[in-house]
Amino acid sequence: MWDASPYDVQIHTTLNREEALKDADFVTTQFRVGQLDARVKDERIPFSYSLLGQETNGAGGMFKTFRTIPVILEIVADMKRLCPDAWLINFTNPSGMVTEAVLRYGQWEKVIGLCNVPVVAKMEEAETLGVPQTDLIYKFAGVNHFHWHKVADKKGHDLTPQLIDKLYEENSGLPKNIFDVPFYREQLQQMNMIPCGYHRYYYRAEEMLKHGLTEYATEGTHAQQVKVIEHELFELYKDPDLDYKPKQLEQRGGAYYSDAACETIASIYANKNTEIVVSTRNNGAVPDLPADCAVEVTAYVGGAGARNVAFGPLSTAERGWLQMMKSMELLTIEAAITGDYGTALQAFISNPLVPSGETATRVMHELLIAHKAYLPQFADTIARLEKEGITIKDEVVRKM
Amino acid sequence: MWDASPYDVQIHTTLNREEALKDADFVTTQFRVGQLDARVKDERIPFSYSLLGQETNGAGGMFKTFRTIPVILEIVADMKRLCPDAWLINFTNPSGMVTEAVLRYGQWEKVIGLCNVPVVAKMEEAETLGVPQTDLIYKFAGVNHFHWHKVADKKGHDLTPQLIDKLYEENSGLPKNIFDVPFYREQLQQMNMIPCGYHRYYYRAEEMLKHGLTEYATEGTHAQQVKVIEHELFELYKDPDLDYKPKQLEQRGGAYYSDAACETIASIYANKNTEIVVSTRNNGAVPDLPADCAVEVTAYVGGAGARNVAFGPLSTAERGWLQMMKSMELLTIEAAITGDYGTALQAFISNPLVPSGETATRVMHELLIAHKAYLPQFADTIARLEKEGITIKDEVVRKM
Amino acid sequence: MWDASPYDVQIHTTLNREEALKDADFVTTQFRVGQLDARVKDERIPFSYSLLGQETNGAGGMFKTFRTIPVILEIVADMKRLCPDAWLINFTNPSGMVTEAVLRYGQWEKVIGLCNVPVVAKMEEAETLGVPQTDLIYKFAGVNHFHWHKVADKKGHDLTPQLIDKLYEENSGLPKNIFDVPFYREQLQQMNMIPCGYHRYYYRAEEMLKHGLTEYATEGTHAQQVKVIEHELFELYKDPDLDYKPKQLEQRGGAYYSDAACETIASIYANKNTEIVVSTRNNGAVPDLPADCAVEVTAYVGGAGARNVAFGPLSTAERGWLQMMKSMELLTIEAAITGDYGTALQAFISNPLVPSGETATRVMHELLIAHKAYLPQFADTIARLEKEGITIKDEVVRKM
Amino acid sequence: MWDASPYDVQIHTTLNREEALKDADFVTTQFRVGQLDARVKDERIPFSYSLLGQETNGAGGMFKTFRTIPVILEIVADMKRLCPDAWLINFTNPSGMVTEAVLRYGQWEKVIGLCNVPVVAKMEEAETLGVPQTDLIYKFAGVNHFHWHKVADKKGHDLTPQLIDKLYEENSGLPKNIFDVPFYREQLQQMNMIPCGYHRYYYRAEEMLKHGLTEYATEGTHAQQVKVIEHELFELYKDPDLDYKPKQLEQRGGAYYSDAACETIASIYANKNTEIVVSTRNNGAVPDLPADCAVEVTAYVGGAGARNVAFGPLSTAERGWLQMMKSMELLTIEAAITGDYGTALQAFISNPLVPSGETATRVMHELLIAHKAYLPQFADTIARLEKEGITIKDEVVRKM
Question: pLDDT tier at A175 (50, 70, 90 boundaries)?
């Protein structure tokens, strides 16, 4: 593909991390510990108990964190040795929690977390409003997959109310991999902000769960669908002469990821001060959260990294939600690092998408067992659960 | 009863509020707008859709607030005129939100909210630990029906871990009107605090809902059970010679309310600086919440009211929960005052016990219609819903 | 001058404020209530008692605020009527307090305060470091005339330590109208930031006072020197054929003010997102100050105004200073609006450049009397002081 | 004296710290590193340059901290080994900074700092108001030697305005060792609080300095006066039959220290919950300062130590002052521990009683040299200064 492109680029590939990191200027990370099979488990085990299973939200999302944080911290440890001047540009989900862990536990400042949700939202909303994106002024605040934004015209007049109106006429700028259930219009009017697509899990929990359960019961969960597409893609990729993006790629989700990555790297490299929505250290940009935690905000990205735009205090409803979510994130990360059972339980119970009680605890136990190979920090707990005879209910997962 | 008591007290009764308030030193408020029938609706309508219906938590609790806040603010307005030096000692549930509304919207500083939950917890825990209560040092922080506490011996050594252990041996100090489901031991150990009984709704949501639904389907919800007891009590009260507390009173819930009230009043009157857990303006006692909001904390109560004991920052999990709950409280109160539909929706969606979506919205609509007589602030919305033909599903409520 | 310039610009002049404001898109304000004679008094009266007299700092600066705030608020009131969509671009000193007053008491959001101090600092430091300014990344935080900044190269490497070293080799980027006394090198190293020139008044109070007293005793205070230059300039300006900036203008101070103004206006007008250091609502950019107060920070200025770069928490020393200064600013503005004597006293005593006691109070009294014509809000106090026979000591001022 | 007292108490004396600490329940510390001669230097060296020299304020107070902090941290280290359950009750000045250092750097929670200033203020104000102290409700907030309080009657009515009025009729409750200069009445009315006696150094800086300079020039500074009294006292103490407090003791300053100590110890020992004003960890009681720093506030002292009364936010002027003072305290402690010259300079420049510049720096240098024996942490700096030939100007000190 590079040969067919107009760019003169040298590609070096390796499966040796040390070799890859040595003297790097930029390190981009996009990995899935346990690959799509692990994601299948993250999705199916909760759904088998009628709880939400999803990659970054609900019970499944927490286990993705448990598997990912130890690995990203190993990478950071290697970077300190092998490329201490490099920037870490991370897409690995949950992108916000990964950034938080890198800052807080990795003690590594040169990190930027990226996500395509704001990219797509901006593009689609410009289309919805019928103006070029460059004529709009956006301001985002929140954490990854849980942020809101406001939009103004280039004179600074707030277009948010108008955009809310339009959203109820037309397609709502929904990320491709989220089932299309509308937000409550009066809720959006009260907040006078646009939530991100993932807010549907919180603002329309019932419908999002129902949709997931239907998929679970029929064509398979999202990971299972993606597996099929990926299989096709990998077959195509076997052809060394393939020099264009296969059409299946669009169905895959994650569009514009590479654009966001390249733009961020180019902005840092050439000190371009491009406006990008990134996960980064707060520094006060969202004053309702501690200054030292990770947030996802509009920033001007240049040679010194992200310069966050100070958003100012959120309104009552959004403030409460965000503080709860950050607490859940911090607990999840702490559990991922310590492997403490009580902390994992607190994280689970704090997750607004996981109704507390025996079912949730059972799901947590099954997920611990299912992901045993990738959760050495929980070895003692898993051993105890196995001794207690906990087994996995979902047939598909059991066979994996 | 007073004649039979050793106290020389003059009782004056009136149904005229102005007469009652005139020149009062202390005003105690314990009322239920719409009486127990309204509570039946608060409980049954959510349960009819398998959502939690409860007096102070979940969907029902929010409607109790919607009905109560306008009335308490009227009382405060009257107090400003008729007894501007009086103290308002409130038991009306939700006691914390009433205190918040009186401080924030009533601009009335001389208010103390009371609840018997901390009173009972202290008594039962002393028994559990096998020491007199005076040998224990308690420190509470949170908001009404959502607080935690720590307990130490009189040398200041933390007994919380030991108490947690004991709770799993013996009776757990559970308020009488909450179904007995244990907290997760490892969760309590992680927080190293004792939650209040109402935390079961949040930490064991599944079981608490299940229990409520069982009652709903069989002997009737709590309000219905209380109605039976109250009927018996009122029959007994018809006898002017009755000079002792009837035994049914103990089944009623709300034990030690009068003790708490008298102790608070006596402490203010005689500047006794008694240690009481009260709802009061924060002033920094719980630094994770704004200094101007209402909290429920250990305080020394004397002539100048409550002098809150500064608790210090909460841990991650408790901080997130508390911030979310305060946000929900503030939204509920705002909706109670403005009657704004969008704000009510935001409050509902922020409530951790109300999974967002069509069912929750339907429940909110039915409750609006069911409580029409007591919700003049929502008149426009109710008219719209009636026009849309929203009717109440629960048969029992429909007949009320 | 415009005719000689390559720009096609129409100039309309008027002394009628309503006419000037009508339908404006941008309003720039640069005025001096009481003109330079008032500044002479601000400077000479404090110096006559060996206290610092200066335009924006010390006793004199506070009186400039007392005279200016009521007028700027009148202008804002007129703008609400005559040009409600306009932006107010203010240079009037004290630029930070004017911005604070416009936001807080004028309830006017579309305001940006400008100052040439950061402009000059950036230019001179680029020269000191021997690199083009575009190769440097600056980050400012503080309040007007009391801010610090850090500088990095375009790879984000902190150059602050290196710049500190250079400052002790070469010219220190000092604003032209401040006497050249060096900062303590070890102090700068400890903070690892560059203070602004006005910090000399606080970090080298003794020398700055001594220098002012020498000028007071010899060639006259700064205002007196400027009066001479202005007289020459106004003589030159009488010539309608004068089509270049006279060389005297450079000695006047305030260089690059017009550049900053034009750049700001152009950036807002064309939504250019230019990086400019401005006085603006904090919104969390400086987390050590309330989110709703005015700060002076690096911002990206575009159609929606200033988008502040979140600076993050300051270190201990800078945090304390800044909090003290903001407190002094708020008290000064409050006194300017209420005319309350006790508040003025608190402001004076809070000013780190005004040692409290009888001399400071005497200076405050003399300044109240000297500026009587411009301080209607203090009329009662001034009448009382006149009755007490307070007279002005400084001979020059007495004759004005 | 104990034999003549009605109490049956065993006294054991030792100069061996380990022996004294072994298995202690309470450790009280009241020491002066370098004894009164060091205090003479703290006072005389600043005065020799017309700067304030005082034990806890100004330049001298900072050096008392530099000498004291390392020693108190050694004591804490010993306590961890020898009496890990003991309480440290500290009177050593500066009592607030010692408490801060013990909490922050000693990691020792069981510490209470005491001071007689609030004790005396309460006593004298009760007398001023003509009511028994038990009929008054006090609320203190601030840091040691820099706190304010409010007073109410036992019905909670604010008596502060009335007390302010009385203070201008009668004796003002001034600590014995502070020269009697009145606060500005309008300042007190604006704050509606009572400052502590030491606030005179900040609110009447000019007069306090003048008074100190007069003493310096005539009968000698306070330390010199105390040395004379102490000499007399020690002569008397040589008599083993002396069984009463000599009258000279009253002139010594520090009255009621022993009462405060005994009351605190008894309250902790018997879990009495006595109301005492103490230096303790903030925990939110003064929300304008970080929750983890030391403050001086009203607290209920019992078996678990100090339970601080949450004061709530301060007003603008007091907030700014307090934040500045806490910053200065933190810098002074940090310099005391690290011996870093730049940090010491920042602390000095942050001190509102030390006008920055060459004189202040010179004073700092002379004090470093004068206290060489007690400042091992500054050894390198002192060596450098000695090499530069810095000598002490004050003749009296030079001869010591």
Answer: very low
Listed residue (B192, B291, B285, B290) closest to D283, CA to CA: B285
H or E segment at C355?
Answer: none
ipTM: 0.96
Interface contact flag, B334 A340, Cβ < 8 Å: no
Residue D95 to chain B, least CA–CA distance (Å): 21
CB A53 within 8 A of CB A366: no
Q: What confidence category does residue D252 fall into, taking pLDDT thresholds of 50, 70 and 90?
A: confident
Contact B284 D281 (CB under 8 A): no
Q: How far apart are CA A46 and CA A35, in angstroms?
A: 18
| CATH number for the domain that contains residue D285 | 3.90.110.10
CB B280 within 8 A of CB B294: yes
Is the pLDDT reported for residue D249 higher than 90?
no
State the pLDDT at residue C170: 57
Is C7 noted as a catalytic residue in this protein? no
Could you give the strand order of the β-sheet that contains A87-90, starting from the edge strand earlier in sequence?
Answer: A26-29, A87-90, A111-113, A274-281, A294-302, A305-308
pTM: 0.96
Is D398 contained in some domain? no
CB contact (8 A) between residue A346 and residue B187 = yes
CA-closest candidate to residue A362, choices B314, B184, C305: B184
Which residue range(s) make up the domain with D302?
1-386
The pair of structure tokens assigned to B183 is 């907290």
From the list D325, D347, D357, which residue is nearest C205 (CB)? D357
- For residue D327, how far is the Cα from the chain centroid? 17
Is residue B173 over pLDDT 60?
Answer: no
Q: Which of A327, A329, A354, A364 to mutate to test the interface with B (most CBs of B within 10 A)?
A: A327
| Catalytic residue chosen out of the listed positions A198, A201, A216, A374 | A198
CA distance A20 to A11: 11
In this predicted structure, what is the pLDDT of residue C177? 44
pLDDT at C171: 55
Catalytic-labelled residue, pool C49, C138, C168, C198: C198
Chain B residues near residue A206 by CB distance under 8 angstroms: 355-360
Residue D163 lies in a domain: yes
**Which of these, D12, D52, D91, D24, lies nearest to D348 by C-alpha position?**
D52
Of D198, D202, D256, D257, the active-site residue reads D198
Distance CA B139, CA B247 (A): 33
What is the reported pLDDT for A13? Answer: 94
In a domain, D156, yes or no: yes
pLDDT in tens, C246-303: 887 777 766 788 888 999 999 999 999 999 999 999 999 999 999 999 999 999 999 9
Q: Characterize the bridge pairing of strands A194-195 and A146-153.
A: antiparallel
Q: What secondary structure letter does DSSP report for B159? A: -
In a domain, D391, yes or no: no
Helices (H), chain A: 17-21, 35-48, 58-82, 95-104, 116-129, 160-167, 185-191, 200-203, 205-217, 222-237, 248-251, 257-269, 316-338, 341-350, 358-370, 379-387, 395-399
Average pLDDT over residues D289-296: 98
B101 pLDDT exceeds 90?
yes
Q: How many helices (H) and strands (E) does chain C have?
A: 17, 9
pLDDT by residue (tens digit) across C101-130? 999 999 999 999 999 999 999 999 999 999
- A201 burial (CB, 10 Å; 0-12 / 13-18 / 19+) is buried
Mean pLDDT for D343-362 is: 96
Contact residues on chain C for D206, CB-CB shorter than 8 A: 355-360
Give the pLDDT confidence of A76-105 residue by residue, as tens digits: 999 999 999 999 999 999 999 999 999 999
Domain count within chain D? 1
pLDDT at residue number B171: 55
Rounded distance, CA B386 to CA C123, Å? 69
